[in-house]
Amino acid sequence: FHPVYLSTLSYQELLTKIAGLFQSDGEKISQVLLCGPAGIPVCISDEMVSQLDCESRFSLHVVPDEVIAGRFKIFMKPNANLRSERAR
Questions:
Q1: Burial label, 18 (beta-carbon count in 10 A; 0-12, 13-18, 19+)
Q2: Tell me: the pLDDT tens digits for 38-50?
């Protein structure tokens, strides 16, 4: 568990903080996506980041970018286990 706190609620800040978790620069990450309903990948924008619940919890999954060699995509999957604990 690694909390990430955003002060500017922007995609760029989210990307920078996630890259820091992986001890990498942002250049290695080609895209950060949110896994939406039915696992559909959703592109993250500044507006979407600003709408995230302040106590949102996600698991991060790293996948090689099939288009750009040497880069990775990060998928943010809502963490259902943590949500169920919160509901108790």
A1: buried
A2: 989 999 999 999 9
Residue 62's identity, in one-letter code, is: V
Residue 2 falls inside a structural domain:
no
Q: Supply the range of the domain harboring residue 82.
A: 11-87
* C-beta neighbour count of 32 within 10 angstroms: 20
In a domain, 44, yes or no: yes
Write out pLDDT tens, residues 15-25: 999 999 999 88
Residues 6+ apart with CB under 8 A from 22: 28, 29, 62
Domains contained in the chain, number = 1
In a domain, 29, yes or no: yes
